[in-house]
């Protein structure tokens, strides 16, 4: 469906927690080689499935850092799947 970058908690609430579709949330950073390697794969998933992909650069804003802490992201890449606003799965690393 779509690949969306967000930088605020309000965007996270709107694009992830209130979404009617499944959402894959990718916590990443531009300095992380495995994160960059995952980018084309995530784009393909967005193009070929009903998932929205939300990318959260953990270094981009204080809100993003707080979201990463709230969802216990201790290493990146870290991907979480949300359905109906609830986290249902997590993949850490590549």
Strands, helices and their partners?
Blueprint: E1 2-5, H1 9-17, E2 23-28, H2 33-48, E3 52-57, H3 62-70, E4 78-83, E5 86-92
Parallel strand pairs: 1-3, 2-3
Antiparallel strand pairs: 2-4, 4-5
What can you see in these coordinates?
The protein has 94 residues and is α/β, with parallel strands linked by helices. It is built from 3 helices and 5 strands. The protein has a 5-stranded mixed beta sheet with strand order 1-3-2-4-5, sandwiched between helices. Strand 4 and strand 5 form a beta hairpin. It is globular. The two termini are 22 Å apart. The mean pLDDT is 91.
Number of helices: 3
Overall structural class, as computed from helix and strand content, comes to alpha/beta
Q: What Rg, in angstroms, do the CA atoms define?
A: 12 Å
Oligomer: single chain
* Average pLDDT figure: 91
Largest sheet: 5 strands, mixed
Amount of beta strand: 25-35%
Secondary structure: helix percent: 25-40%
Q: How many structural domains does the protein architecture include? A: 1
CATH class: Alpha Beta
CATH topology: Glutaredoxin
Q: What brief labels describe this structure?
A:
31% strand; alpha/beta; single chain; five-stranded mixed sheet; globular; Glutaredoxin; 94 residues
Short characterization:
The chain has helices at residues 9-17, 33-48, 62-70; strands at residues 2-5, 23-28, 52-57, 78-83, 86-92.
């Amino acid at each position: 469906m779509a690949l969306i970058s967000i930088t605020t908690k309000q965007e996270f609430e709107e694009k992830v927690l209130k979404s009617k579709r499944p959402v894959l949330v990718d916590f990443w950073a531009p300095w992380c080689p495995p994160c960059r390697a995952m980018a084309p794969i995530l784009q393909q998933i967005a193009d070929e499935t009903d998932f929205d992909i939300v990318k959260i650069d953990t270094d981009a804003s204080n809100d993003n850092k707080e979201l990463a802490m709230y969802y216990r992201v201790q290493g990146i890449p870290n991907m979480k799947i949300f359905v109906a606003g609830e986290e249902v799965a997590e993949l850490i690393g590549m």
